[in-house]
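Contributing new records

If you add data, match the layout below exactly. Sequence lines come first and carry their own label; structure lines follow with theirs. Keep one chain per record. Anything else will be rejected by the validation script.
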Amino acid sequence: MRAGRLNRVLLALVGLLLLVLGGAVLAVGLGAPVPSWWPHTSPHDALLSRAERTRWRHADWWWPAVLATLAVVVLVALWWLTADLRRRRLGEILVDTGDGGSALLRGRALELALAQDAVQQEGVAHTEVLLRGRRTAPTARIWLQLEPHVDPARALDDFTAQALTRARESARLESLPAEVRLRAVKHHAERVT
């Protein structure tokens, strides 16, 4: 399962759980019949009785444990929020038009053009491209899936000299650093007769 899909599933489950619990508390507070799984019998009961609230007050470990747990929950929530807000893809690239001005090139368009150009190369079965970095200095992460008969060194040299160079020149970039990962297409063994 990809990270984005896992993130959405976890957010949906947490949201559904909070919605059910919050809705149940609100419904019971407004006078709805008490559900069978509800820990209290009357709509006028407090969620925590006085005895439950003061049960661990005199234990030395209680307040440090409560504060440490809340701190961990806050740190995990902040980490999740920053990880979710961080952009994985470069949205646009600033292109120098040559007349002193600039234009915006969609990052996805350059990714698709680079991938299509790479697939035209002999021996490349499939390509995935991901642009990252700043819009004035993008970097590329490329996955090339090669046919079994292709020499990886030659395929990498051809890709660098052709597709990557054309992408850099067409976007008028001074440099386009790239991390290229090669993998072979899975194939069945050939029979010898």
